[in-house]
Specification:
It is built from seven helices and four strands. It is α+β, with helices and mostly antiparallel strands and 146 residues long. It has two domains: 87 residues, Homing Intron 3 (I-Ppo) Encoded Endonuclease, Chain A, CATH 3.90.75; 45 residues. β1 and β2 form a beta hairpin. α5 crosses α6.
């Protein structure tokens, strides 16, 4: 199969999304082995279309579809721009609220592993890391002073 035939097969003509039909991460993102390591498909698509990732930036979906690998739907964005997109698309981690975020931070400070915390709250380990470091649910959002 030629690459253009493959892309036509997995493209959604209504949305323009190109949905990865193979391995999907726990967070719903396309994943594959690329250059000898497991990578997320939307990051590879963004690098291919827009160059290497600038420091501190995320590969953000304009469409809100995590499994989409259409380079036209993905751009480099700051963490706050990415969070704003996720809020707009309804793909933000709504399993958490201000109370659970505060509890996660306490558990991290007490030394509980991020894996254990993630399991307890039904989120990914990455979500716990982002909450703990303030990448998402920054302290102003939850009314916690620094």
């Amino acid at each position: 199969m030629r690459s253009d035939e493959f892309l036509e097969m997995i493209a959604n003509p209504d949305t323009g999304c190109i949905i990865w039909p193979y391995s999907i991460s726990n967070g719903g993102y396309a994943q594959l082995v690329f250059d000898g390591r497991v990578r997320l498909g939307h990051q590879i698509a963004c690098e291919t279309a827009h160059g290497l990732r600038p420091a501190g930036m995320y590969a953000a979906h304009r469409c809100g579809v995590h499994a989409c690998i259409n380079p036209d739907h993905i751009r480099w964005a700051t963490p706050s721009e990415n969070t704003a997109d996720r809020l707009l698309h309804g793909t933000y981690g709504w399993k958490l609220n201000a109370e659970s975020v505060a509890e996660i931070r306490v558990l991290v400070a007490e030394g509980l592993s991020q894996r254990q915390i993630a399991k307890r709250f039904g989120v990914t380990q990455t979500t716990v890391h982002h909450v703990a470091t303030g990448h998402t649910w920054n302290r102003e959002m939850v009314g916690v002073s620094a």
